[in-house]
Structure to design on (421 residues):
């Protein structure tokens, strides 16, 4: 039976509608899957980014932990350069000024230079002041035995000081087992490069057995007699007043330590046995102690005018090999020999009017004192050695200039191996 054209059109229309419906559903399904796929890709990207961020954070934390562990290991393995001990007795105001000066520069190198205060006696104000500094270890020397002097009229203070020094240094070197100790007194201020100076000087002490100690002091370090903050010298005269020695040297000195006047004892030739001391031209300590055991002796003339270094010196970058005994002997001898010699009675007058380094020979101790008094430098000798001298030569600057004046002993050039100019 033949279909009518109307039926065929209806069938075609139904088929078209079904096809369109299927296409629409298919498109909708594809769009839905595409959206889900895009969302999945975004989610994966976010997860990857978060994972990378977490990995980076973990890595950073591991680096920080490793750095901290390394720092701790360095701190634990770092051996101090030297203990620093402040010798105190009965001056709390002086002690405070000294400690504040030290802490100003010690904080950044605290692990290298642990601080101690050693008090002699039972002064309550000093002990209270010392204990107020939590970063400083306090030691107290109490000796209740009556102090007897060897000669009538002597001050017992010098005997007490010597006994205190021995007790404190025995404690630091033997009990605490430090390799080196820097000794300060409770009436000193220090220079900005004090610790750096002694850190480098420690190597000199370790490597050159002809050096007995290193000092931060120059007896002729008054403002008018110094010029170069980098200049260091060897000296046959023990300066004291801020000095460092090693454990082997102390173990040599301790058994025979004197009952009094310990500093003059160290200056004896039989004690230092041809070893020298390193001293700076410009002082790294300033002594403000006008009132003390020495009754202000020499204070206004020699101590108050001292120049305390205020120039930053990076001692780690300085070549100090010139201080080795053989090199220093030759170079210093050449410097002395090349200075213009002044001989006649008008030598002192000429020294003021010349623009070059000069040398003036003295005949004996009395002659030296006369010349020293003229210029205003220290006149004192100990066991045949003038203060600050090396091979009998005392050198100082003329009116803070670069000019040097050498006071030369009758045998100095021979001892220096220098030819007479």
């Amino acid at each position: 039976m033949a279909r009518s054209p109307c039926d065929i059109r209806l069938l075609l229309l139904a088929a078209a509608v079904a096809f369109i419906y299927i296409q629409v559903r298919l498109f909708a399904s594809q769009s839905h899957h595409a959206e889900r796929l895009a969302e999945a890709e975004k989610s994966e990207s976010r997860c990857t980014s978060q994972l990378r961020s977490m990995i980076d954070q973990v890595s950073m934390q591991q680096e920080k932990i490793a750095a901290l562990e390394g720092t701790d290991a360095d701190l634990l393995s770092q051996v101090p350069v030297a203990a620093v001990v402040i010798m105190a007795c009965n001056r709390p105001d002086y002690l405070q000024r000294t400690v504040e000066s030290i802490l100003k520069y010690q904080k950044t190198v605290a692990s290298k230079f642990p601080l101690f205060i050693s008090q002699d006696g039972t002064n309550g104000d000093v002990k209270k002041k010392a204990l107020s500094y939590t970063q400083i270890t306090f030691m107290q020397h109490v000796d209740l035995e009556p102090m007897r002097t060897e000669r009538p009229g002597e001050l017992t203070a010098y005997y007490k000081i010597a006994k205190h020094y021995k007790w404190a240094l025995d404690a630091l070197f033997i009990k605490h087992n430090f390799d080196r100790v820097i000794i300060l007194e409770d009436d000193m201020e220090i220079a900005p490069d004090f610790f750096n100076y002694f850190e480098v000087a420690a190597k000199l002490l370790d490597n050159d057995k002809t050096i007995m100690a290193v000092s931060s002091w120059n007896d002729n370090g008054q403002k008018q007699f110094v010029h170069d903050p980098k200049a260091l010298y060897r000296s046959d005269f023990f300066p004291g007043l801020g000095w460092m020695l090693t454990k082997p040297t102390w173990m040599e000195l301790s058994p025979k330590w004197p009952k009094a006047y310990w500093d003059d004892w160290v200056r004896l030739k039989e004690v230092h046995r041809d070893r020298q001391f390193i001293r700076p031209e410009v002082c790294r300590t300033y002594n403000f102690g006008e009132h003390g055991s020495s009754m202000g002796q020499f204070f206004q003339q020699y101590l108050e005018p001292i120049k305390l270094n205020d120039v930053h010196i990076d001692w780690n970058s300085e070549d100090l090999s010139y201080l080795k005994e053989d090199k220093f002997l030759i170079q210093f001898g050449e410097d002395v020999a090349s200075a213009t010699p002044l001989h006649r009675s008008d030598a002192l007058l000429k020294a003021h009017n010349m623009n070059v380094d000069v040398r003036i020979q003295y005949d004996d101790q009395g002659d030296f004192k006369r010349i020293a008094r003229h210029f205003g430098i220290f006149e004192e000798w100990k066991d045949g050695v003038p203060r600050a001298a090396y091979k009998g030569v005392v050198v100082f600057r003329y009116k803070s200039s670069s000019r040097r004046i050498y006071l030369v002993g009758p045998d100095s050039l021979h001892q220096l191996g220098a030819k007479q100019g």
User: Anything to note?
Assistant: Residues 109 and 279 are 22 Å apart (CA to CA).
